[in-house]
Amino acid sequence: QVQLVESGGGLVQAGASLRLSCAASGRTFSSYAMGWFRQAPGNERGFVAGISRSGGITTYADSVKGRFTISRDDAKNTVYLQMNSLKPEDTALYYCAADSSRRWNTPPGRRSDEYGDWGRGTQVTVSS
Description:
The chain has no helices and 11 strands. With about 130 residues, the protein is an all-beta fold.
């Protein structure tokens, strides 16, 4: 099991940037593919971005492709989500998640049920 703590959320204007961080502790961080999900009020939790254990494969939701970048620093046990050109529709609670079932260089999952460990989330609010 791994413990995950997100940070970096906040209130920004449309067009601004934020970088979310997710610090992991517990088991070896490199054992996990990592993902970011988000949930707005009244909506289901949805996939945002994922990164393989190797760091060499990343996937994105169509709604954020070209604006968001996921990365990982295994020396710091941290995964990041760089969010640029933010839009009001990006407003949500953002969750970090870990998947221990992936092989080293396979694509990360896009479904929430593929991830076994979750943080508590960090709020991102984008005003128009």
